[in-house]
């Protein structure tokens, strides 16, 4: 007698009742399922809600209604006042200087002299305001010496616009300021909120990130190739593996301290772009190694075998089979790691990124600032107008991160299925 | 305590091979007619011995089939012939394999060069995620082939009986072909490096009968120019395609004879049980 038969004899016959009078059982199960769906779905709904609030807050904060009392300028010009495409800035400046009572010769001299242009640009802001003097889209020239009277949020301005506009006295100007505009990307840092821009921070971040990619991709991918394709399984390679996973989890501020003592002071680079890039590379390399190893491991062993079987050397297998098939995964890992580095603040603070940099970095040995540092500095300002500047900068940072994550997502979709 | 099943009983009754088992051969292949001579080959994975002294002469321009139950060492034996086992860490090989007068495991032999002369086709079709053309051109490109690549690719695809089906889609991905076509693409890829011996490790085990039939016909064609060694689990296949068959059991070569003899008149009891489907 087989085991199966004996077991069947020992067990009582199963109570089979397929009938569900009135559908009570089915209803109970459906209810449980609905409950389960809600309980597990709630955190996701919560997360999406919070994200929406964050985005809404940042976007609305980067607009504000302002009431100012112009000193040296304060003229507004309609978009339709015969502006040619391209020559807008000169045209507005000409009109502004005319309104200040300069004659044609003086105006030509100001516009013709690079130094005079620079001084004008440093003191005055030519801005396409969304709403000014009762009309949409008007150019407004403001000066850093203008008297800023009031600052209303977007919502306040809309709900009380009629009241606020009627209270504008002669000589005052009331407009809807889009803090995040094209000029915002180019302007330098300034003590005046209306004059402050993202130029040096953006340039600094881009330089640092490009250097980080240049440093960490060869190192990280090289290490991953070594560990996956060349290293034999010894205590040494296991130690490296263990440390890699731990390094990826070390708080970034620790890397900042390391960067400060090694690159800034030890080698004596000082608080420059290169030191920041090296420090962030320390942070990024373990992440790149882990991502690249996973991508390399995902390349089917049968492809390696095929290449070896055709007489490929180890380096040919790596170069012609492994890396081409792992490139999507590696790139995705690099993009995600770079996105992380882009948002890192603590290491840069320690390495000595400056809070106020009035000009673009002119090389890898130049002092610099970066997006998160600039945001941190602006948030710390007392002036309420800097809230809007900070919000605009946060919106830019989030947009860049969004683009990077979208690239990673696209790469995964594009190349993920061919492997 | 479970009672032994009928299968267990039959297994237990299966005779063990004696440690000093001598391979049974009839019509042995003369050394002069053979292209690969394996002499007393022993192989260890770490401390586990997978091959216990295998001696086999592989006749030129013939198909030799290696059969045996899973784990008997037939794939291992196949992989020693083009030194693919070198890629597994912890492998030690003892004994001799002579190919065209060269001792393959000699200290001055480059395993990469060995693999270029002794091609291999794997159990699962493994084309690279590249175009059909690039798949075939892969091997020649490795050695920096400077000649007429188009002609070489065409010749290899024709030899693999695939040209007529893919000549209008050479630039399309090799992964877009059917399973059988992919396997023939892999054969074409192996032929493109112009080897003289082709090792096949269960090349049709993942294919349907129609695709299998095509590959078997192809193998029959290939032996005019190549020496083929094929590992198979399918005894009908061994009977159909091979000229000589070697039956292996637990790392030993039990019987090595012309195929029709081994299937109609097996000498060793193990062989008889295996070819009649009692185990394996």
In short:
The complex is a heterodimer of chains A (419) and B (280). Chain A is of the alpha+beta class and 419 residues long.
Characterization of the model:
The complex is a heterodimer of chains A (419) and B (280). With 419 residues, chain A is of the alpha+beta class. A six-stranded antiparallel beta sheet of chain A has the order 2-4-3-6-1-5, sandwiched between helices. Chain A folds into three domains: 21-61; 63-178, no CATH class; 199-416, MetI-like fold, CATH 1.10.3720.10. Chain A contains 17 helices and six strands. Chain A has helices at residues 3-10, 24-61, 88-99, 104-112, 114-123, 154-159, 161-166, 182-186, 199-230, 235-247, 252-266, 273-297, 301-309, 314-343, 346-351, 371-379, 385-416, and strands spanning 63-69, 76-78, 124-132, 135-143, 147-153, 173-178. Chain B has a domain at 59-76 and 108-275: Rossmann fold. Chain B is 35% helix and 25% strand. Chain B is built from eleven helices and eleven strands. In chain B, helix 7 runs parallel beside helix 8 (209-222). The longest helix of chain B is centred in the middle third of the chain and has 14 residues, at 179-192.
Mean pLDDT of chain A: 86
The SSE string of chain B, one letter per element, is: HEEEEHEEHEHHHHEHEHEEHH
- Uncertain regions spanning at least 5 consecutive residues of chain A: none
* Content-based structural category of chain A: alpha+beta
Quickly name the level 1 CATH class of the largest domain in chain A.
Mainly Alpha
CATH superfamily of the domain at 59-76 and 108-275 in chain B, called what?
Answer: P-loop containing nucleotide triphosphate hydrolases
CATH superfamily of the largest domain in chain A: MetI-like
User: What fraction of residues of chain B sit in β-strands?
Assistant: 15-25%
- Could you give the order of the helices and strands of chain A? HHEEHHHEEEHHEHHHHHHHHHH
Terminal CA distance of chain B reads: 26 Å
- Oligomeric state of the chains in view: heterodimer
Largest sheet of chain B: 7 strands, mixed
The beta-strand count of chain A equals 6
Count of discrete alpha- or pi-helical segments spanning 4 or more residues of chain B: 11
The most extensive interface between chains reads:
A-B, 22 and 29 residues
Number of helices of chain A: 17
Structural class of chain B: alpha/beta
């Amino acid at each position: 007698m087989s085991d199966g038969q004996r077991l069947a004899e020992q067990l009582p016959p199963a109570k089979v009742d397929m009938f569900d009078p009135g559908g009570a059982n089915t209803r109970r199960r459906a209810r449980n399922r609905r409950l389960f769906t809600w309980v597990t779905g709630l955190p996701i709904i919560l997360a999406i809600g919070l994200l929406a609030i964050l985005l809404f807050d940042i976007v609305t904060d980067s607009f504000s209604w302002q009431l100012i009392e112009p000193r040296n300028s304060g003229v507004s010009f309609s978009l339709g006042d015969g502006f040619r495409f391209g020559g807008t800035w000169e045209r507005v400046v000409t009109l502004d200087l005319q309104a200040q009572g300069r004659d044609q010769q003086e105006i030509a001299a100001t516009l013709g002299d690079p130094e005079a242009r620079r001084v004008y640009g440093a003191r005055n802001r030519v801005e396409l305001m969304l709403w000014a003097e009762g009309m949409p889209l008007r150019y407004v020239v403001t000066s850093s010496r203008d008297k800023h009277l009031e600052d209303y949020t977007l919502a306040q301005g809309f709900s009380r616009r009629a009241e606020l506009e009627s209270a504008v006295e002669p000589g005052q100007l009331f407009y809807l300021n889009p803090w995040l505009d094209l000029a915002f990307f180019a302007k330098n840092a300034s003590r005046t909120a209306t004059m402050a821009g993202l130029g040096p921070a953006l340039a600094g971040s881009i330089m640092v990130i490009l250097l980080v990619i240049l440093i960490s991709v060869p190192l990280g991918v090289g290490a991953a190739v070594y560990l996956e394709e060349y290293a034999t399984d010894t205590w040494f390679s296991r130690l490296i593996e263990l440390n890699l996973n731990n390094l990826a989890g070390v708080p970034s501020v620790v890397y900042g301290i390391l960067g400060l003592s090694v690159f800034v002071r030890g080698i004596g680079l000082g608080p420059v772009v290169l030191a920041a890039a090296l420090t962030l590379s320390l942070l990024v390399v373990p992440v790149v190694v882990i991502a690249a190893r996973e991508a390399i491991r995902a390349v089917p062993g049968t492809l390696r075998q095929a290449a070896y079987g055709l007489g490929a050397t180890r380096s040919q297998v790596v170069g012609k089979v492994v890396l081409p098939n792992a490139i999507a995964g590696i790139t995705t890992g690099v993009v995600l790691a770079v996105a992380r580095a882009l948002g890192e603040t603590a290491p840069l603070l320690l390495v000595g990124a400056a809070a106020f940099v009035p000009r673009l970095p002119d090389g890898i040995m130049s002092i610099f600032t970066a997006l998160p540092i600039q945001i941190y500095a602006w948030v710390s300002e007392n002036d309420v107008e800097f809230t809007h500047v900070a919000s605009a900068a946060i919106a830019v940072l989030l947009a860049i991160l969004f683009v990077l994550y979208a690239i990673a997502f696209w790469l995964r979709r594009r190349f993920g299925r061919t492997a | 305590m479970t009672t032994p099943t009928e299968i267990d009983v039959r297994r237990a009754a299966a005779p063990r091979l004696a440690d000093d088992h001598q391979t049974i051969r009839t019509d042995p292949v003369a050394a002069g007619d053979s292209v690969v001579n394996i002499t007393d080959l022993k192989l260890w994975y770490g401390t586990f011995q997978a091959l216990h002294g295998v001696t086999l002469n592989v006749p030129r321009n013939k198909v030799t089939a290696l059969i045996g139950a899973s784990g008997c060492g037939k794939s291992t034996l196949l992989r020693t012939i083009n030194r693919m086992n070198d890629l597994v860490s912890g492998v030690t090989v003892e004994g001799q394999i002579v190919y065209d007068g060269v001792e393959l495991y000699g200290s001055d032999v480059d395993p990469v060069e060995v693999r270029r002369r002794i091609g291999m086709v794997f159990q699962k079709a493994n084309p690279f995620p590249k175009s059909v053309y690039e798949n075939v051109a892969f091997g020649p490109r490795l050695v920096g082939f400077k000649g007429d690549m188009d002609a070489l690719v065409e010749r290899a695809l024709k030899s693999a009986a695939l040209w007529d089906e893919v000549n209008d889609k050479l630039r399309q991905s090799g992964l877009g072909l059917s399973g059988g076509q992919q396997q023939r693409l892999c054969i074409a890829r192996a032929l493109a490096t112009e080897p003289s011996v082709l090792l096949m490790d269960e090349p049709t085990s993942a294919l349907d009968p129609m695709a299998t039939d095509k590959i078997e016909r192809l193998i029959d064609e290939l032996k005019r120019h190549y020496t083929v060694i094929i590992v198979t689990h399918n005894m009908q296949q061994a009977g159909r395609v091979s000229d000589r068959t070697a039956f292996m059991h637990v790392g030993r070569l039990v019987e090595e004879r012309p195929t029709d003899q081994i299937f109609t008149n097996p000498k060793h009891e193990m062989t008889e049980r295996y070819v009649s489907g009692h185990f394996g």
